[in-house]
Structures are given as structure tokens and as C-alpha cells.
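Progress against Task 2.4 (sequence-to-structure conversion) is shown through the following example record, which the project officer requested during the mid-term review.
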Amino acid sequence: MKISENTSPNKGNMLYGNRNQSMIPNDYLESSNKEYKLIYQTDGNLVLYNAKGKALWSSGTAGQTAWKTYMQPDGNFVVYKAFHQPVWASNTEKHTNCKLVLEDNGSLVIYDENNMKLWSVLDSKSCGNAFYAEANSYLTPHDYLLSLNGKYMLLYQEDGDLVLYDEEGKALWSSKTKGQPAWRTYMQPDGNFVVYKGFHKPIWASNTENNPNSELVLGDDGGLAIFDIKGNKIWSKGNDNSNVNPIEREIADHYMFNRRELTLGHTLVVDYSSKTVGGKVSMKEVDTGGYAPGKNPFQHWEILPIDDQWFYLINQVSNLVLDYSSNDGLMCKPKPADYASNPNNYQLWSLEKCSNSPDFYIIHKQSGLVLDYSGDDLTCKKKDINTPNPGTNKYQHWCFSDSKSSHKPSPVLKSNWMNNIDDGKSIGDINIPGTHDSAAINTFSLSPWACHCYTITEQLNKGVRMLDIRISISLEKNKNYKFMTCHGSFGTNEFQTLDSLFGECQQFLKKNPSEAIIASLKVDDWNNVTKQQEALEKLIDLINKYPIITQPHLPAMGQVRGNIFLYNRINEDIKLGTPIHWEDNCTNWTSNGSPEYSVFVQDKYRDYTLFSLPSKESQKFSYVEKAFDEKGSGKYDVVWSFASATWGIKDLWGIYIINKIISYLGQEDSTTRPDKLGWILFDYPFNSFRNTAGYNPMTVVDLIISSNFGYTGFNHSFELTHPHVDSPQHNVQKE
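C-alpha cells generated for the chain above:
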């Protein structure tokens, strides 16, 4: 069939590369909603306009003799002047069946045949009308906050300026940072709203630090304000007469059920109906008092952690905390004003997994007693009092449930999540979150070779159980060998000593004996050491100081609790760990007798040649998805997959796909979601993401841990809304 040429100046909203479609002077693309036009002007410039005639972007080719603009069959979008001379291009060649689309949001995008973005301008996204400090929300260039009525926009511009606009396009306020290299604008966990230019350098701030749990809100009247946790306005711009108000947010709250009562058919929960300071805490039937199911705030308790073990239990309706003072009994009282830095031990609690059930003891810090409901009163008693078989006293067994999810159990603590894994389960069948180049950590100064912002101890406390350890070996002047962790063999790439890393692991395992750490050891830099075998003997001596297991067969969970199971990527000596050596930069390496069990490895970390970063990310994700499929097939005892890669000069830039992995797992609910994922290693795995299911901002570590327990706590399908990531915090000069 012959396709007729469109001779009208209006070329629709897209051009197809496989048809070699073009525009001549005065031709234009128009978005489907008629709000945007891309016009090829007679002065040779290609310009994108909004409905008010404001120029949003141009090719910068004014003054060139206008001829044609082509969407070429090779995927390149090119502006030509007379005599077929190219003067501007998108540089997206080597892609077939592409199309250029003018979207309804004003972005101009080139898609490949798989509908992946190769190139875009003004590809902005709305991030809602509010940012929350605890989520570490941020804007990248072209991102914006939009008031609920759609009349006001806080736009982070490509020129580095943060500008508040009204519906007429009039600027009401700006950060006055125009001309600075745009990078990110953060609402930080400390409550400070900060504009950063390149290389993490702060250039403007609201100076509202020391206000955790605050929120930034763009109101329907053009007011932009930051509110503290009590709802007090602590900073504002835009409309001076604004009535913008803080947003009422859902609290991640829980019921606390007693197991003994559940076995008797009684759904009793901890209840604080008295509401007054010092009032009595009791047990009542769930959702009594005329409340619809899930709506009784007297029975909702929020967990407020102060570290990875201890937390406050806050009653939602009173905002008081559960308190056990020996003379007063169990009641609710105010928490200290400086509750985090100077905690009240009478108000601190922790969870300990019951040995023969999925339930928990709730342990009181000051007394060491546990929460007990064996009589008419809720109180604290010595663990397993009056019980012939320790661990079987169900009066002291408690299960938590989310008040919004049909009373299903909440996820376990991340510092001891392996406590719930059966002893007989092979470690290869546990889905384990890990870190790539685990010791490459940013500290007081930023390193281009770093992959993390948290120490080894912090990584372990946050749920990581697999460490990828690279070392540099050198001979010092005193003839002693030095073993330093590193990342590669170039640049300022040394971090902490290997001895200190294993020391951190040992201390963590002493505090959490139910846990195990899987680790691999590889030499990245020999530093011209000539007596390598001698150096390795010293390395074995170092390893022998620590609770490290080295064996040829794959152990079960019960065999490695309290220990590090080590893989050797150096040589064939079992004393350095189970030998394993996969091909460099592999997509699907499989073991062939070494180790003695079957292993699949995906470690494609470079040579991503597709033009755009989104295409590189999609390519990397396809390799990780393949690894998930291999684990799900049951063909391999161990599936080992790396979820990050590099690109650019000296591979200095990262390819990160955590958002794609979380989105992939969120497509289905917990009943059909893939639950055989293997061992997955990440850079920066604690970036957290908001989602459409209303869960607290989630990390990929949260999701992988929960996959071992039927995705408890993440039962519903979801989509991601906007990313929230860890960032350095700085105080900067006032505006």
C-alpha cells in the first residue's frame, strides 16, 4: 500500500523514522491536546512553543538557511540547512523504527521500536503538591510541584533556578539560583529545603533544619510553605496572604493482638480508650466503640524507632506512648521532647522472635520484662513465668497487623529478619539483598568510586546480608602486608581495612546470632606484590580470626547462623572460601563443577552501547529479569545477580535500576508476584520510593526481605509515584 504524503503544514503530533518523514519551513507538530507546537521556522530554528506562544526549547539554529528537518530511518532527528548540510541532531542514530512524539505535557520524545525513550526535551514530571521530609523527596530539572487546582507550579528549571509560577506564567518567587548547573532540589529529612548544583554543592536553602517530619506544601492560592510536625508554619513564600494548610497524612499504625486470645477465638487488641495522661491501657475487642473496621484510633499504635532495636509505641488518638514504670504499671504518658537523643528507657520496647511461632515477645528496655496478658490486666512479667516449657507461653506472644490491611502481620525487624527462616532451608533458596563493592563508601568526602552512603554495620542493620568485598594488597616498608578494601585499581580507591570490615561483621553477628552473612572476596589491586602466595597466607591468617565458614558444599540456614559464609574469587584454595570464578562482564555465566553445586551469575557491568541512559537502564534490567526467571525455573541452586552497571569515560557514571525492579515486582499482588529472586546486589539500595498503594516509602531491600515471607506487608499491587533518595545534608547561607 502506498502511503500518501501529508502536504499540510500540520504534521500531527509525531514523525516516523521508517517513513523518513520531514518538516519544511512553517511546518509544525501539534500535541493532541492542542497545547504545544513544534515549529520549523523560516529563520532555520526549530522551536517548541506552549499555547500562550512562549518558547520552551529550540535547536539553536536561527540564522541558518532553512531547508528540512528529518526523522531519519536510522533513528536520528536532524535539522538540515541548504545543500543537505546538518546543523543540529538528536544523535540517536543506529536505531530503527523510531518515532518522534510531541506529548500532551509539552515534552518532545524519541522512542525506539520497543517504546523506550532514546532522547527527550522538557520531559518533566509532576511530583504532586507536597514533599515530606522523612521521605527525602527531590526534584530534578524540569520536575515540578503542582497545586491541586492546577493553577500554581513550583518548577525546577534547567537553568538552575527554582521558580514558583501562577497560571499566567508570572513568576511569584524564585531561589535566584539561575546560571548554576542544575542538579537536584531536596526536601531533606532534617526539614531543610535545599537547592544543590552539580557535585552535591548546596547553593540555596530554606534554613529550616532541625525539623524532622516536616512537610513542604504548595497551596491552591499560590502559597508555598513548610510546616513542622505540629502543623506550625516555619517558612513560606509566594502569596503573602496564603491560607495554605498542612496535609493530614496517614500514619503507619498497627493493632497488637495477643496470641492466646486468638487461639480462643477472641480478637482482643491493646486499647487506650481513656485518652488522658497516665490512663490505663487494657485489652478490648478489635474495633469496638462504634468504629468501622480499621477506624478505631484508640487501638492504633505507631512504631517510632530510635535505632535498629528499640522503639516507642505511640497511641494514635492521644499521641502518648506506652510506658511501664514499676510503681505505676502499664499506662500511656508523653514521650520526652528530646526523645531520640535522650530516650526514656521506661518507654522503650523491642521485639524478640518467639522460637516456635511467627509471633514476638514485646520486651521492655528498663526492666527486661515482656508484655503479658495472662489475667484480667495487661502488664509486664518475666519471660515464660509459670510455664513448664519455655517459649510456649502464648499469653506473652504478640502479633502485629497493619490496621489498613485486614489484620495481616507486619514485616519483621531488618536487623534480625533471618530469624524467621527455617534452619533446614538452603541459603541458595533465600532471597538475599546485597551490596556491590560493599566497602566503597562515601564518608566525609565524596569519591567517584564510591557505591554507598552507609557503613557496613549500617548496611547490615538495614537488612543487607550479602557483601561483595574487593581488596587491595600491598607490602609496607616494615615488610607487613596491608589488606585494604577498594573499588578497582585506579584513583583514590582505598576505603577501610579488611580487618575492620570483618570486625564490623563479627560485632553485628554477636548482637544478632540468628543472622548469617554471605560474602565474596576478590583482589582488585596487587600493587606490584611479587610474593603473592606469601601474601595470601597472611590473608588466611586474618580470615581465621573471624567466624568465617569455608566449605565446598552449599549449607542450610541453620549451619551458618552467626557466621560469614565466604566465597573465594582469588584462587582455588578452600581456606580463602568456596572457589568461584565467573567470566568478566557476563550476562549468563553458569558453573561447571566449581563449585560443586549449580550457579548462575549475571554481572554485566559495562559496554552498554545504546545511546540514551533510559535505554541502558532497560538493557540492564532485562539481564536482571532473566536472572529472576532462571531462579524461578529451579534449574540452579544459586542465582547471583548484580543490579548496577557503568557507562561513559572511564565508566564513571552509573546505571541504576532499583526503581525498575520495584516497579516490576509491584505489577502483581503478593499471590502472583515472583517470589524466587536469588541473591541480588545493588549500589545505593536504600533509596526509597512512594507508591500508589499507600505503603510508606519502600526500599528494594524491604521488598526482597518480605519476598521470603509471602510479601507480608506489601500484599497489594502498586506503581511508583516519585523517588525519594538518601542525600548529604548541609547547612547553607540564608537567602
